[in-house]
Amino acid sequence: MTIALAIREAADALAGCSDTPRLDAELLMAHMLGVSRSAMLIQHMKQSPPPPGFASLIVRRLRHEPVAYILGEQEFFGLTFRVTPDVLIPRGDSEVLVEMAIKARPEAKRMLDCGTGSGALLLAVLHGLPEAEGVGIDRSAAALDVAAGNAAQLGLDDRAKMLPLDWHSAGWSADLGQFDMILANPPYVETDADLAPSVRDHEPAGALFAGADGLDDYRVLVPQLPPLLNPNGVALIEIGSKQAEAVSAIAERAGFAVTLHRDLAGRPRVLMCKLSLGKGQPNG
After folding, report:
1. Please, what's the largest Cα pairwise distance for the chain?
2. Is the dihedral of CA 97, 169, 160, 149 positive or negative?
3. What pLDDT digit, counting tens, does each position of 223-274 carry?
4. Terminal C-alpha separation, the chain
5. So where are the chain's domains?
6. Whether 238 contacts 94, CB under 8 Å
7. Which CATH superfamily does the domain covering 84-275 fall into?
């Protein structure tokens, strides 16, 4: 059996559990061959037999395990990030937040990423702002290990510091100081949301779910952000597609002026929050 035929049969098998069965099969085959997908398509399709481990990867995908976890990596904003089941898989929809951050505060020197996970948001922004440094916080030690590894892999570990902090804990921000920019992608999925098995059964629940209406973490985190911002600072907060009005109201009550930005599909995606006059004084 050639590589081409093995990919075709795998794609047919995956059609019932994936929206991109052919792409999944190609990525998994290229991974087994140790080459890029483009190199495989150009140079290896007539090769035979296919590597023996390919079938086991297809079985994992048939069980709805995300391709990114099988490969151990995911591309985001043109960068490659290591991912494990301890962190959410970075998604293209979130790239709008990175673009906004780089455009909104190109002069930013210091930034905070709340719920850093793999570090994708913070590290992508730091990659685009070479004069900036940042702090990523997460309550998951395993996630912080992934983020620190990604910082080192991207050559950003001298500008990115990962800290084990939880915004649900009193005093978590006492020693952080103030920032020119805050990034936040907190859990925002409703507890009973109808999610694909690849998400609900494989990605970390603690980074997904935030109560019956998906707003629990916004209610806790957003009111704590004003004292962490410099007077001209900006907070960029990712939201679910139906949460713009509710999260905007939370932010406005906290003293922010809010502007909604949409992703490439036209869905509400990011709130840009700037301090209203008289807000944002330091703690204590």
Report:
1. 70
2. negative
3. 999 999 999 999 999 999 999 999 999 999 999 999 999 998 899 999 999 9
4. 70
5. 3-63, 84-275
6. yes
7. Vaccinia Virus protein VP39 (3.40.50.150)
